[in-house]
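Minutes, project huddle
Topic: does the predicted pose make sense with flavin-adenine dinucleotide bound?
PN asked that the exact inputs be recorded in the minutes so nobody has to dig through chat later. Recorded below.
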Amino acid sequence: MAENKYNTIIVGGGIAGLTSAAYLSRAGQKVLLIEKNKECGGLVNSFTRDGFQFDAGVRALEDAGIIFPMLEDLGIKLDVVKSPVSLGIENEIIHIEGQDSLLKYRELLVKLYPESEEETDKVIKIIRKIMKHMDVLYGIENPVFKDLKRDRTFIFKKLLPWLPKFIFTVGKINRLNMPVEDYLEKFVKNSSLRDIISQHFFKNTPTFFAMSYFSLYLDYFYPKGGVGKLPEALKNKITECGGEILTDTKIIEVTAEKCLVKDQNNITYKYDSLIWAADLKTLYRITNTDGLSQNIKTLSDDTKSMFLKNRGGDSVFSLFVEADEPLESFRKIANGHFFYTPSKIGLGEVHRAELDQLISNFENVEKEQILMWLDKFTRLNTYEISVPGLKDPDLVPPGKTGLIISFLAEYDLFKKVEDAGWLDEFISEIENRVLKVISDSVYPMLKDKTIAHFSFTPLSIENRVGSSEGAITGWSFQESMPVINKIQNSARSVVTPIPSIYQAGQWAYSPAGVPMSILTGRLAADRVLKQKKIL
Ligand SMILES: Cc1cc2nc3c(=O)[nH]c(=O)nc-3n(C[C@H](O)[C@H](O)[C@H](O)COP(=O)(O)OP(=O)(O)OC[C@H]3O[C@@H](n4cnc5c(N)ncnc54)[C@H](O)[C@@H]3O)c2cc1C
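Predicted holo structure (tokens), as shared on screen:
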């Protein structure tokens, strides 16, 4: 029992938990990181199949003024390359090279929708305005990762001049919080144009977050060897600093009064502080608050019911393709990170009212109806296509190319199909349609040169990382938001009502993603150190 006692236990070895563990072990704490899978990384993960290396989660990383400062602060060297983005609709493809590429985007939209030139100009104007806000927001390294006690140059030359601009910009950002679809509807009457601009974002994404993507396209980078190199580097840092990592271990119970967590083999571990860096519905489902004060129990019960009422956000379907075709053939068409829409018509109600209707009425719907819907959905959708070999040629066998073709997908549909007993058939129907749509349009060589393919569904994500509704960035934007969602309040996002338990990662702050998961991981570690009066 004595061996199982730690200053801090971190549950969840995704990027958030790894960040917390790295900072706490560097601070000399006795730290244990517990991860349910064989490997750490969660949704930042790479794997190899048949000599092809693929990324299972995020396809490339955005610095956002967070990742590079965090790496520097921890003394981690990561070999990275830029991950340039291309955008394509039907036969028109542009490569994003700098802020000026916004003009190329304008020309592309005007060429496809000549009747909507004025509306396009309004959209471009807003994107340009938001790019300026983003320049401020990410204009300096995030101060959380700087040594503010010693780095006086940073404080006086960067932080103090930046703060007033930041406060001003945050005010503007908070006013752009409405769902992007509603915002665009106010001045873009052409529904196809609206769809093309917004359909590859999560449903009801806040306008600022969605429209900031043009800036984020310029921010993407890729670790040589795959995105999985980032968690690997953090993991090495933790062990180097004396932290312990336990994989293949799932926490199934938290006893808050005794500060104990229990794993699937009924082994218990005692903590002074616990950082929960995994799905928050799970935390509240498995936490026993008996013995705590009535006040805390009530607060915890209220938080639990609020979380359980809310849903995880959109999930994703990823098709992995191994092709007997050299990288050069793909390089001629687009960059290794490519947002492609084969039809300019747009999804319209296909992924909204039509899908809702199918799901709510699933028991009375014929399989044929679902497959007809799938035809439309795959023809009109936007795909995020990643070609890891175009970023690092060592990731593929010579003369061959691996592709990851993905799109946002509704968890409930996959769940209903699974319950109805035809999930494998559904998956292969999707794979065949996606391959046909992509080989009929942008990559014709996939028709004859596909050697093998396989896919991950929202259910695979749920199974692998324990993410409610297979969500990939935490909470759905369609419900009320149950966690902190204003950047100026982010420091509070890691607090829970239960004593000595903190939260971090995609479920702790919204909108999330890799940089915010890292930030909350760091903030949670800082809270623990402050509580112990180490900071
Ligand atoms: C296809 C795809 C594309 C994406 N694109 C982007 C992008 O462009 N930009 C961006 O910023 N983000 C993107 N993301 C999202 C980003 O990857 C995630 O939001 C982020 O990695 C979440 O990290 P996390 O540590 O908070 O959570 P997770 O990665 O979910 O980590 C949680 C960890 O906890 C473990 N765990 C769960 N329950 C338990 C338990 N009971 N006991 C022990 N361990 C447990 C899980 O196995 C997992 O390893 C994308 C994700 C995907 C899948």
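Observations noted during the meeting:
- The chain is about 40% helix and 20% strand.
- The mean pLDDT is 95.
No decisions taken; revisit at the next huddle.
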